[in-house]
Amino acid sequence: MITRRVFATMLGATLGRGIRAQNRPQVTDRPAGSADLPTAIAGPPSAIALVLAPSNLGLRPENGRQPGTWGAPQALMEAGLADALRPVEVVRLARPRYEFDAQSGTRIRNGKSIRAFSLQLAATLRRALVSAQFPVVIGGDCSILLGSLHGLRLAGGRGLVHVDGHSDFSHPGNYNSKVVLGAAAGMDLALATGRGEALLTSWPQVGTPLAQDADVVQIGERSSGDPAFMKYYGDVFDTQITMITVQRVHAGGVAAAARQAIARLAERELRRAWLHVDLDVLDQAVMPAVDSTGTPGFDYAQLATLVAMLRASGRIAGINFSIYDPERDPDRRYARELVRCIAESLSRKEAA
């Protein structure tokens, strides 16, 4: 299923067909500085640090309006997220300004703003990681992955488990960036692995890429059976990225998928990797309040089991959740479901 998140990019590919290759938490309202920080993660995390990242910069506007994902952190907090997770600290990043028009010098929508926000997020996460905290980042759209990975790398970690109903692998090798203004939420994995503009692929003290292909496991891609997807974005299967489609998860079970991902992390000696969860990996039957709904997907129990097993492996340093849109959930029914799912996934001690 090709969703609106990637439709405009597909149009660019069509027009450019020749292009293919426990205590009350302390709450702060500013990102932490990083000048005086240690250079390595300080060991296994002992407590959750909750980071609210209200960005919608990586998404395209819809019907002339900016996307509503920026409101997700507040909606989930109002639904009881802090009470459920009992973090030792809550950090609230300021909402960045969404711009409808192209920014100068970039063919990625809000590209300069995404970089600035990513650097703020990275500084916050680096401090949490080197303080032996387990950061839980609540977005926002999928462009928050870039700041999350940068923070991980600054703290000495590496590697990525990318749980998403889309592989988010749009890049100038498979679409015409001169025709289409790119949306970072549909290209976050491509950017993280060094494909695209240096603005969002080259990072201070880290360089390019944030994650090597061989250090990435993607879980949840649902469109690999779609000929249009394979025509325009199937090059993700030609990389060293480990791909575990949602169909394979359903066929073999969530536990088997988690064990495969953990085995790959171990093979690559990835001891402190990042876990990215785009909530559109949930089936639209149980989660319609996301930017790009789709099926097949997970139910809440499957997602909670996957996250719990990955965290229990000891190889995950932190996690981000993205793409929930409270404007599509006016009575906050799905906000309450998400809080329960997130809390369960982070509280269970699931053996691998």
Structure description:
With 352 residues, the protein is α/β, with parallel strands linked by helices. It has one domain (4-347): Ureohydrolase domain (Arginase, Chain A). It is 33% helix and 13% strand. It has a 9-stranded parallel beta sheet with strand order 1-3-2-4-9-8-5-6-7, with helices on both faces. The relative contact order is 0.17.
Q: Helix coverage percent of residues?
A: 25-40%
Q: Count the domains.
A: 1
- Which strand order do you get reading across the main beta sheet? 1-3-2-4-9-8-5-6-7
Order of helices and strands: HEEHHEHEHEHEHEHHEHEH
CATH classification class: Alpha Beta
Structural class determined from secondary elements: alpha/beta
Calculate Rg over CA atoms.
Answer: 18 Å
- Give a quick account of the main beta sheet: strands, pairing sense, barrel closure: 9 strands, parallel
Mean pLDDT equals 90
Q: CATH homologous superfamily - what is it?
A: Ureohydrolase domain
Percent of residues in beta strands? 5-15%
Distance between the termini: 32 Å
Give the helix tally: 11
Tell me the CATH topology.
Answer: Arginase, Chain A
